[in-house]
């Protein structure tokens, strides 16, 4: 089985906003986000490793003794060795901050050199069902896999550690089924620079989330346009960029945009009428 180098194209710590509502154990709707341009934890290697140290990383024997749940896994080897190892981490929140394949690949406690495949697994007692869903480490290896030789090699490699495991080729993500996050973990997210808000109703959550997404898009858009414009033409775009930042601050401080979204909806309707 041929290994690949660790990918440098994706951040080690990354937020997966997901598509389904997420709740706390006590039923609050959860929003987690990060404003475009704000400092990322990935810029501080020491903080990255500090965060990663808070999450499990289990070998094969430890997984068999671990609690039931959903995990992401990798097959890997260390530098100077051909021995293939297994490691996994429990996906404790759908936001996947600190539990992605990249978080395993760059965890300094593992010393990973080459990666041979990855995916998700479900553990129920001693029963393990697994797939090869990893956009970073399985998908590139399986490209042009006409005779399934690469797929079979990864499956066989996984079954060295778990001979009775069941391979699932449905391509249904297990991680998408995770829909709760603990309040303790949300505090860790906040400590590491993420914006966390809790809401009693779905409508309140959706209104905040939609406003945040719209304003954040404008911040990114106006910033890029301002940077691309000649110096003499930057003033109008700078005002729009500054205005978007001020609106975001108001949203985060008060939960309201002060009419920002309402004005934007009216403008969109006028455009539709002209079309």
Protein model, in words:
The protein has 275 residues and is α+β, with helices and mostly antiparallel strands. The protein folds into 2 domains: 4-177, no CATH class; 201-274, no CATH class. The chain is built from 9 helices and 8 strands. The protein has helices at 45-52, 60-65, 101-105, 139-142, 149-161, 183-191, 202-228, 234-254, 260-274; strands spanning 4-5, 29-33, 69-78, 85-90, 112-124, 127-130, 166-167, 195-199. The strands form 2 sheets. Strands 1, 3, 4, 5, 6 and 7 form a 6-stranded mixed beta sheet that branches. It has a two-stranded antiparallel sheet with strand order 2-8. Helix 7 runs antiparallel to helix 8.
Précis, in short:
The protein is of the alpha+beta class. Helices cover 39% and strands 17% of the residues.
The amount of beta strand, in percent, is 15-25%
Rough outline = globular
How would a crystallographer describe the biggest sheet? Answer: 6 strands, mixed
Number of spatially distinct domains: 2
Rg value: 22 Å
The poorly predicted ranges are 260-275
User: How far is it from the N-terminal to the C-terminal residue, by CA?
Assistant: 56 Å
List the total number of helices: 9
Proportion in helices = 25-40%
Strand count: 8
Order of helices and strands: EEHHEEHEEHHEHEHHH
Mean pLDDT: 90
User: What structural class results from the helix and strand content?
Assistant: alpha+beta
């Amino acid at each position: 089985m041929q290994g690949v180098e660790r990918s440098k194209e994706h951040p080690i710590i990354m937020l997966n906003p997901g598509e389904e509502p997420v709740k706390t154990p006590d039923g609050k709707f959860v929003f987690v986000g990060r404003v475009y341009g704000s400092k990322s934890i990935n810029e501080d290697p020491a903080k990255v490793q500090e965060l990663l140290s808070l999450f499990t990383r289990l070998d094969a024997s430890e997984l068999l003794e671990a609690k039931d749940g959903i995990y992401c896994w990798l097959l890997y080897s260390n530098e100077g060795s051909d021995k293939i190892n297994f490691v996994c981490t429990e996906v404790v929140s759908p936001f996947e901050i600190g539990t992605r394949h990249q978080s395993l690949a760059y965890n300094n406690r593992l010393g990973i050199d080459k990666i041979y495949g990855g995916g998700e697994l479900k553990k129920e007692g001693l029963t393990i069902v697994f797939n090869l869903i990893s956009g970073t480490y399985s998908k590139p290896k399986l490209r042009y896999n006409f005779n399934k030789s690469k797929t079979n090699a990864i499956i066989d490699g996984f079954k060295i550690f778990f001979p009775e495991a069941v391979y699932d080729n449905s391509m249904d993500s297990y991680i998408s089924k995770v829909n709760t996050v603990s309040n303790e973990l949300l505090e860790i997210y906040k400590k590491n620079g993420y914006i966390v808000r809790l809401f009693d109703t779905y409508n309140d959550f959706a209104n905040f989330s939609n406003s945040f997404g719209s304003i954040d898009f404008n911040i990114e858009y106006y910033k890029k346009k301002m940077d691309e414009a000649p110096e003499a033409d930057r003033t109008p775009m700078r005002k729009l960029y500054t205005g978007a930042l001020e609106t975001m601050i108001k949203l985060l401080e008060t939960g309201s945009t002060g009419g920002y979204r309402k004005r934007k909806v009216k403008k969109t309707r006028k455009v539709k009428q002209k079309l």
